[in-house]
């Protein structure tokens, strides 16, 4: 799988979860919670998951409109990827 394929996959993942409430193009808090539980299962086994998700949503929602745009999603995934790289290859 090429990096371009993985980027297309990321776009598909965003669109899939963003469309769950019938409003495409943004992730609500509930949609983000579903995405997190299905795509980041280890995080969601944490007992403080609700607090963690609330904090993550606040960090992701950079313009404060209470929804996550694709741009906000991609920036956050980029930050997560940096954190993952640092944890795997310190
Ligand atoms: Ca936003």
Automatic annotation (TrEMBL):
This is EF-hand domain-containing protein. GO terms for molecular function: calcium ion binding; calcium-dependent protein binding; transition metal ion binding. Keywords: Calcium, Metal-binding. CDD domains: S-100 (cd00213). Residues 48-83 form the EF-hand domain. The lineage of its organism: Eukaryota, Metazoa, Chordata, Craniata, Vertebrata.
